[in-house]
Design brief:
Largest sheet: 7 strands, mixed
Order of helices and strands: HHHHHHHHEHHEHHEEEHEHEHH
Number of strands: 7
Distance between the termini: 73 Å
Shape: globular
Strand content: 15-25%
């Protein structure tokens, strides 16, 4: 009688759990190995760039030495694609941008080289570049997502909304809540004119909810649109309802197509009370409200929020905002950068 195939044998008790644990450990080990290889590669590129800088400064070597170096390194390591002249120039710029080896080892070394090229070519301010690097690591941004956040100035807008969180929420929740809201919010992806009405904007945001969540930032989860609230037999509808996973609270978003008015906060406060009493569980923190309006007077918003006991914020939104065509064409695209790494394309514009 033939033996039963191994795959059909009943595993012993506890085998499934043990197998799942082993798979998890193997996957973690693979990730660590990949990260370690990436760190070594980025550090190597930094060291090469530093060496080029030092020799050019101390021995007066000109730019032609990079052409010779690219030729010699590609001849010595034909299987590696990172030794084109363009990439050696990026290594030089990389070392110039990050003169401190500790930052390379502890921060940007955790990002792939493609991410570092985006940071290098898109941002000139060292502190801002480091802030985006740290956010990319913390949130696991892909290269394309990092590029989008830089183009839309996400970090520069974070924490800019007018709120009363500092006095209405406990620490550290107030700091996290404040940093979670921006001003202005950019809805370039909607394809709407600047005169769009509230319901048009709301419908388009739901249609493009993935991009909307990306613009809102990490932690937001979509709950629903036009969420029904039955209060004393009367029906009310919340424009957009979210849940923030880090703040552990619901977030009510109301849209106003015109200028901010103090009375808008009365309606928003009513919705916050209703959500707290009807939807929020005992484990959730108090509901937060965000009023998105086309324009606002900052002083008026601060006054209007001053006597409100519930946590609220006021921010503007912008539907259409794009770079001038001449500026767009002066910036290298991701595709151009990738071509440079393989030596198949022209050099990026000067100043990139």
């Amino acid at each position: 009688m033939s033996e039963q195939p191994v795959g059909l044998m009943d595993p012993p008790n506890g085998y499934a759990d043990w197998l799942a644990d082993l798979k998890g450990r193997i996957h973690t080990a693979q990730q660590r190995a990949t990260l370690a290889v990436n760190r070594e590669l980025v550090l190597l590129y930094w060291q090469i760039g530093r060496d080029i800088l030092q020799r050019q400064a101390e021995q007066g070597w000109g730019a032609k030495v990079i052409d010779r170096l690219a030729q010699d390194l590609r001849a010595a390591f034909p299987a590696m694609k990172g030794f084109s002249r363009a990439n050696l120039m990026y290594m030089r710029a990389f070392a110039q941008a990050w003169p401190d080896a500790a930052i390379v080892q502890q921060a940007v070394g955790q990002l792939p080289w493609g991410h570092n090229l985006v940071l290098l070519t898109q941002l000139k301010d060292p502190e801002l570049r480091l802030a985006y690097a740290q956010s990319a690591i913390a949130h696991g941004w892909s290269r394309n997502v990092l590029n989008i956040h830089i183009e839309t100035r996400r970090l520069e807008r974070s924490g800019k909304a007018v709120t009363n969180f500092e006095t209405r929420l406990p620490q550290p929740q107030s700091d996290l809540a404040r940093e979670s809201l921006k001003d202005p919010y950019r809805f370039d992806f909607l394809g709407l004119s600047d005169e769009a009405h509230e319901r048009e904007i709301e419908g388009a945001l739901v249609k493009h909810v993935t991009e909307f969540l990306l613009e809102l930032g990490a932690g937001f989860a979509f709950v629903g649109r036009q969420v029904l609230l039955d209060v004393g037999g009367d029906e009310f509808f919340i424009d957009l309802l979210f849940y923030h996973l880090k703040l552990r609270c619901y977030v009510v978003i109301e849209l106003k197509a015109g200028k901010f008015k103090p009375e808008h906060l009365g309606q928003l406060g009513f919705y916050l009370t209703a959500v707290d009493r009807q939807i929020k569980s005992e484990h959730d923190n108090p509901t937060i409200g965000l009023l998105l309006c086309k324009t606002k007077n900052k002083v008026v918003a601060e006054y209007a929020l001053g006597d409100k006991s519930q946590p609220m914020g006021v921010a503007e939104y912008k539907l259409l905002e794009s770079l001038p065509a001449e500026l767009q064409t002066s910036l290298p695209s991701i595709e151009q950068i990738e071509r440079e790494l393989t030596g198949d394309g022209p050099s990026p514009p000067s100043g990139a």
